[in-house]
Design goal:
Layout lengths: L6 H12 L6 E5 L6 E6 L7 H12 L2 H4 L3 E4 L4 H4 L6 E4 L10
Parallel strand pairs: 3-4
Antiparallel strand pairs: 1-2, 1-3
């Protein structure tokens, strides 16, 4: 699995930061590894973008389909996401580059 064009995701990430004052954003890529099916912002320090997106995706897509998808996230620690997301996860950056958030 290779996803080369992060431009749509980065545009969403920038909008999250500038328009909504929310830094963490997660996006769910379809099996083609380029179509963004869903995205979600962090709601609070306990309702992370990744866990909220996982819940939303589980409500809208069957489990066998989700196993072929990839979650993109640009912030946070892998440990924070590991138990929440059963699919592939691609991290675009670490917490140290995001002001520790």
């Amino acid at each position: 699995m290779v996803f080369h064009d992060y431009s749509a995701y980065l545009t969403l990430q920038e909008s999250a930061r500038t328009t909504h004052s929310k830094r963490p954003l997660a996006a769910l890529l379809g099996p083609d590894n380029s179509t963004i099916l869903l995205s979600h912002l962090s709601i609070s320090h306990t309702r992370h973008a990744e866990s909220e997106l996982t819940r939303l995706a589980s409500d809208h897509y069957p489990e066998p389909y989700l196993w072929r998808c990839t979650l993109l996230t640009g912030m946070g620690n892998p440990e924070d996401v590991g138990f929440e997301v059963p699919w592939r996860v691609v991290f675009g950056g670490g917490a140290e580059g995001c002001g520790g958030y």
